[in-house]
Amino acid sequence: MTFMERLCAIDKLLLDGKAIPLQVFLNRIGVSRSTLKRDMEYMRNRLGLPIEWNASAGGYRCTLPNTQTTAPSAAPTKRRSSAKATERFLAISKLLGYGKVVPLQVFLKRLRVSASTFKRDLAYMRGRLNIRIEWDRVKGGYCYPKHTAWEGCSLPVHA
């Protein structure tokens, strides 16, 4: 399981806001305790997710509100769509992971998002996740720099 796949799996487990025991994470994701803790720290510090250890419940939980209304007349409070964004980041990395130049229209079609959403995701991946993605003017598409291209579909090494 790649780094982005692990983040996506962790985020899906935390989606409902309930405390998830450590052993559930370890069994479902298939990583060591130290790797899970590093991933949780990354999600807290780099992605800004309020993930906390709840000792009384014996597990990790995300304290973002779910998509529910607090009162019948109140506007719904939306949970930040981190699961969807993480899935888009994973899809972007997989599309770019084959060492080819990918045109903008391919991303928009595969991800089913607007150009502005894609560009926001791209800016986030570049700025917050330190993933180098470049625009190739000659070929007219996005790609990883030549020195970070590889075979397969995992993310490039972070600096």
Short description:
By secondary structure, the chain is mostly helical. Helix content is 43%, strand content 9%.
Average pLDDT reading: 77
Strand order of the largest sheet: 1-2
Return the structural class. mainly alpha
Radius of gyration: 17 Å
CATH superfamily of the largest domain: Winged helix-like DNA-binding domain superfamily/Winged helix DNA-binding domain
**Count of helix runs:** 6
Kindly state the number of beta strands: 4
Instruction: Spell the H/E element sequence.
Output: HHHEEHHHEE
Low-confidence sequence ranges? 66-80, 148-159
What proportion strand?
A: 5-15%
Shape: elongated
Percentage of residues assigned to helices: 40-55%
Task: Supply the CATH architecture of the largest domain.
Answer: Orthogonal Bundle
CATH level 3 topology of the largest domain: Arc Repressor Mutant, subunit A
The assembly state of the depicted protein chains is single chain
Number of separate structural domains: 2
- Which CATH first-tier class of the largest domain would you pick? Mainly Alpha
- Describe the largest sheet: 2 strands, antiparallel
Query: How far do the termini sit from each other?
Result: 20 Å
If you had to describe this structure to a student in words, what would you say it looks like?
This protein is mainly alpha-helical and 159 residues long. The chain has two domains: 3-62, Winged helix-like DNA-binding domain superfamily/Winged helix DNA-binding domain (Arc Repressor Mutant, subunit A); 82-148, Orthogonal Bundle (Arc Repressor Mutant, subunit A), CATH 1.10.10. It is built from six helices and four strands. It has helices at 3-14, 22-29, 33-45, 82-96, 104-111, 115-127; strands at residues 51-54, 59-62, 134-136, 141-143. The strands form two sheets. Strands 1-2 form a two-stranded antiparallel ribbon. β1 (51-54) and β2 form a beta hairpin. The two termini are 20 Å apart.
